[in-house]
Amino acid sequence: MDDGYSGANFNRPAYKKMMDDIYEGKIGTVIVKDQSRLGREYLQTGMLMEITFPQYDVRFIAINDGVDSLHGESDFSGIKYYFNDFYARDTSKKIRAVIRSKGERGERISTTVPYGYMRSPDSPKEWIPNPETAPIVKEIFDLYASGIGIRKICNLFSERKVECPGVYEFKKTGSRSGHPDLNNPYQWTITTIRRMLSNRFYVGDTVNFKTYTKSNKLKKRIKNEPENILIFENTHEAIIDRKTFDLVQKHFEGRKRPDAQGEIDKYSGYLYCGDCGKRMYLHRSKTMPAEKNYFQCGGYQQGKSRCTVHNIKEQVLDTIVLAQLKSMIALASTHSDEFYAMATEKGKAEAKKYYASAEKEKSQLTTRLHELDNIIRCLYEDRVVGRITPERYDFLASGYEEEQAQIRTKLNELNEKINEIDLQDKYVKEFIQKAKEYINIEKLTPEILRTFIKRIDVYEKEVRYSRTCGNTIVVQYTFQLDKN
């Protein structure tokens, strides 16, 4: 009895139990409604019929197909196996096409509701923040953004007896998809929090086609290439603001290893080599005094660039960045009007220049996108009337569809850059507001870096190996447009 399972699935519980009994010699006859209920994969089904069943002296009967191995193998059984397999492949192809169409329209194709959300009582297709779990998600992002490591967050929630997502879902719905460990309901794992911190769904975006399978016979999900992933922004209510989310991703891009206290390097994701553009990493050890901790160019130490060995001590960097930040905060808080005019003047000039080139490029890309749609439509018509073969159509269409995917990616990048420029005025006002709250800062913390700084570039000394010449340091603030 395996109702509800596809014949293409050979992991059906009843089927596996039957095969175990066959191997133990407990079964002499297998009876099915028709051959497709034994299996829809013609290679494996053929192996059963022609090798396994005869080897274990098992009689096979398919009632509707008129097959009885006692009277010999039917000449049409092999053809039946193939057509049963073909039906499964054809159905899979149609379902994939429907899912693909939905995903390209921006509809959510995932059926699993992420932790922190729930289905809307008014519309099951709409997902809204769960008042019970959304605050926990927000707290996780805030803790990590402030410099608390993932392991420490896990321990914190375990101590507070906060149920982990798998157990919470099981108690609410009875679903075991999250593999709940009911003996340890408060045991949060590093993998769980790591996935949550990288999930764009929490900022209101729908991400489709993150994984794929090679065929209906291979169930393993494979990570998709970035250019094949489709992202649709602001499709539902966000739990996390984009600024915090982007900050967390910057931490992930840097070194993620916490120290003995469970804290992460506060400059992780902020500090870059000004000469080669690679990240700079903190070097420290238990036997080395804290005042000797230093940052070194990752490109040099990994041999990935021809950069120099230059480094800078953490204490020196703290002193320079803190001094520059104090000066900027003092200007923004005491002379707000002058600061606003100074901060937005350059941004407006850059925005005007970028708008002109971006709109021209967007127009060209959009025109090409429409041209490709017409080309594919004509190709399809040629295939239908027989002017080109199906194989030729598949080859040509795949190339044009790949070009379309690349164009959509480029359009998304242009739109993201334009949105960032549009937010320039908002960022400047936020900087001024925050400056008035942090007028007296004495120490750099992850929270202060997150609030005011976007990027720090450290350059090689003008006189290499000099003990008196310092490194040039360029600090990019949150209200400034990206240089890169």
Describe the SSE topology:
Elements (H helix, E strand, L loop, with lengths): L12 H11 L5 E4 L9 H14 L3 E4 L4 E2 L8 H28 L12 E3 L7 E3 L4 H12 L4 H10 L5 H9 L16 H8 L8 E3 L2 E2 L9 E2 L6 E3 L9 H12 L17 E3 L6 E4 L10 E4 H4 L9 E3 H21 L1 H50 L4 H33 L1 H14 L8 H7 E6 L14 E5 L7
Parallel strand pairs: 1-2, 10-14
Antiparallel strand pairs: 2-3, 4-5, 6-9, 7-8, 11-12, 12-13, 14-15
Plain-language structure description:
It is built from 14 helices and 15 strands. The chain has 484 residues and is mostly helical. It folds into 3 domains: 13-104, 3-Layer(aba) Sandwich (Rossmann fold), CATH 3.40.50; 117-253, Hect, E3 ligase catalytic domain fold; 271-477, no CATH class. The strands form 6 sheets. It has a 3-stranded mixed sheet, with helices on one face. A 3-stranded mixed sheet has the order 10-14-15. It is elongated and about 95 Å long.
Number of strands: 15
Strand arrangement, major sheet:
1-2-3
- Structural class call reads mainly alpha
Label the overall shape.
Answer: elongated
Helix content: 40-55%
List the total number of helices.
14
Radius of gyration: 30 Å
| Overall tally of structural domains | 3
